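Run log // design_07
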């Protein structure tokens, strides 16, 4: 497969699968663990955020995007020269997904830097989510016990031959919602799970597929990020069961599990906080000073 060339800024190109071979290994080695900075995440949400890529200063990767009318850029690997950085800030409204280390540097350069709390990634110890030990997880254990007691269940690795079952979960999940949510990205993730090297588990009740999880490793292989988790039906405790069941089969090499953002949604914030995160992958936005 011929690798797509990445043009120099101000030109740009859409993300394509044939760029994965070059970008995926580099993104995997990023130490900060920002969930947006995996090739799969960037590719699957390229339409949602209107992602385009280019290079500035010859080799510094720039990811441009637009949320509604608000343009932004992201720099996964490095800051370019001060002159090139000024060009980006002059052309685009803000810099998004700024790590804590970069936030300090940009603050020292007199850019306006603010916390992007809605996009903080929730970080958990893998062992906490797999064992749910102690009083703080008492309610979670009771809900899982209710699910196990009331249902004949089975969990299996989400292999190629079980994709149709995962698709049926996703379609049923969508049919019960008033909005599309991340349906398109989730569907494409299943379609391209082998190409993108996404790993997951799928869960059944009395032979019917009712839930699945799908994600990948990041942060130099020390963490695992859950990109998609879907469940259907009115089974009491199913969400808690799937969360614990998938965490329990992840290899011990993963110290932490990243369950991504709450996006400012109060319900998601409450649910994610209830699992007692050990902290956050903090992200910032930077702008030109007022």
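design_07 sequence
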């Amino acid at each position: 497969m011929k690798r797509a060339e990445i043009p120099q800024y101000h030109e740009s190109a859409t993300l394509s699968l044939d760029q994965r071979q070059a970008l995926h290994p580099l993104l995997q080695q990023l130490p900060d663990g920002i969930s947006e900075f995996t090739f799969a995440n960037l590719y699957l949400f390229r339409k949602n955020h209107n992602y385009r890529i280019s290079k500035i200063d010859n080799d510094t990767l720039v990811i441009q995007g637009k949320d509604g009318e608000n343009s932004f850029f992201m720099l996964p690997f490095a800051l370019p020269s001060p002159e090139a950085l000024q060009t980006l800030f002059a052309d685009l409204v803000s810099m998004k997904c700024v790590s804590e280390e970069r936030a300090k540097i940009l603050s020292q350069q007199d850019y306006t830097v603010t916390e992007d709390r809605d996009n903080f990634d929730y970080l958990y110890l893998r062992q906490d989510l797999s064992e749910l030990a102690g009083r703080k997880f008492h309610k979670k254990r009771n809900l899982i016990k209710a699910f196990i007691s009331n249902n004949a269940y089975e969990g299996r690795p989400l292999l190629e031959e079980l994709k149709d079952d995962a698709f049926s979960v996703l379609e049923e999940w969508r049919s019960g919602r008033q909005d599309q949510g991340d349906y398109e990205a989730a569907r494409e993730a299943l379609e391209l799970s082998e190409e993108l090297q996404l790993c997951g588990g799928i869960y059944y009740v009395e032979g019917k597929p009712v839930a699945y999880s799908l994600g990948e490793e990041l942060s130099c292989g020390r963490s695992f990020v859950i990109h998609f988790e879907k469940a259907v039906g009115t089974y009491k405790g199913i969400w808690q069961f799937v969360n614990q069941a998938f965490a329990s089969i992840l290899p011990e090499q993963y110290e932490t599990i990243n369950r991504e953002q709450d996006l400012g949604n109060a319900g998601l914030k409450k649910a994610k906080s209830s699992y007692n995160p050990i902290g956050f992958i903090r992200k910032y936005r930077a702008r030109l000073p007022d």
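The longest strand covers residues 208-218.
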